[in-house]
Design brief:
This protein is of the alpha/beta class. 44% of the residues lie in helices and 18% in strands. The strands form 3 sheets. A 5-stranded mixed β-sheet has the order 3-2-1-4-10, with helices on both faces. A 4-stranded mixed β-sheet has the order 5-11-6-7. The protein is globular. Strand 6 (111-118) and strand 7 form a beta hairpin. The protein contains 10 helices and 11 strands. The protein has helices spanning 16-23, 44-51, 65-75, 95-105, 169-172, 184-194, 219-237, 240-264, 269-288, 290-308; strands spanning 3-9, 31-38, 56-60, 80-82, 89-91, 111-118, 124-126, 129-131, 137-139, 163-165, 199-209. The protein folds into 2 domains: 3-209, Spore Coat Polysaccharide Biosynthesis Protein SpsA, Chain A, CATH 3.90.550.10; 219-308.
Length: 309
């Protein structure tokens, strides 16, 4: 069974030598890599073209991660689809074989992810993710020692790099392209849950993750896209109480606290000011796009109603 690994990239050149060195040593032989470059100017595309001619290289303009993934899905020829393996993740040699094995245990009727270990340590970044009462991500096993943590054998809310059989696309649909960065995986796994498809973590499939390597160190940009995606996801999918709590947490608590800290945090004051600006911009974007989000909410509510009947 062939696997298609979809990789979206923007300015990830510093990680590509290590990324490909690990990815191409998989014990599972039957796979292809589809590399969608979103307008990088750091020679990422040339590196792939020169060093890995068997990789399908697709060069686009400045597009978001959701659109890049869908481009990759349409070009993929594999039965198993995997998105979006970050370029700042270095996978173990058995990463792919363990994913395929775990999928087969459930007759390829689930979504499967892998455990991420913080690069340079033995600490888990996440082994699946759930949501807390405020609708914020709660990483399973975060900062626990990999050797001592037992990954739960139960469904999770979402995984950071979903793997699944392409037959499930007929029930889930494509990736939502409105998620420019962040939450496209959360939204995809949540929509899968609406139609009865579980998401699980393969305990022996692992990568070593450079935390936030693909996002860079721009706090305003990171906060903008992270909070924008989180607010939008809950407007579309969550109950009114969760929506209210989520908006209070992001639009009021996090934004006001960043504004206050921008005046009293010494050398870090400029960082908090940038976070404040990013959070304000995220709130304004969602207010501007409320009608579109509520139209999607109505559509997915109808799907949920049908699945319950």
């Amino acid at each position: 069974m062939k696997a298609s690994i979809i990789v979206s990239n923007y300015q990830g050149m510093q990680y590509l030598p290590g990324f490909f060195a690990h990815l191409m040593k998989q014990t599972y032989p039957n796979f292809e890599v589809i590399f969608v470059d979103a307008g990088s100017d750091d020679d990422s595309a040339e590196f792939v073209r020169s060093n890995y001619p068997d990789v399908m290289l697709i060069e686009e303009g400045r597009i978001g991660i959701g659109e890049a993934i869908n481009i990759g899905i349409r070009k993929a020829s594999g039965d198993i689809l995997i998105f979006d393996l970050n370029t700042d993740e270095f996978v173990e040699t058995t990463w792919l074989s363990e994913i395929v094995c775990h999928l087969s245990r459930f007759n390829f009727e689930i979504i499967c992810g892998h455990a991420r270990i913080i690069y340079g340590t033995s600490l888990i970044d996440e082994a699946g993710v759930n949501l807390n009462r405020l609708g914020q991500a709660k990483k399973i096993g975060h900062k626990c020692l990999m050797e001592k943590f037992v990954i739960p054998e139960k469904p999770v809310c979402f995984v950071g790099c979903p793997a699944f059989h392409r037959k499930l696309l007929d029930r889930i649909g494509m990736v939502d392209e409105e998620y420019f960065i962040y939450a496209e995986d959360l939204d995809f796994c949540f929509r899968a849950k609406l139609v009865g498809i579980q998401t699980r973590c393969a305990p022996l499939s692992r990568s070593y993750h450079h935390i936030r390597g693909t996002m860079g160190a721009n706090p305003r940009r990171m906060e903008y896209f992270l909070r924008r995606a989180n607010l939008r996801f809950h407007l579309i999918h969550s109950q009114p109480t969760i929506i209210l709590l989520n908006w209070l947490y992001i639009a009021f608590f996090l934004t006001v606290s960043a504004f206050v800290l921008s005046f009293c945090s010494g050398l870090r004051s400029p960082v908090y000011l940038e976070k404040f600006k990013g959070r304000i911009e995220a709130v304004l974007w969602n207010l501007k796009n409320l009608n579109h989000s509520f139209a999607k909410r109505k559509f997915f509510r109808s799907i949920l109603k049908k699945s319950l009947n």
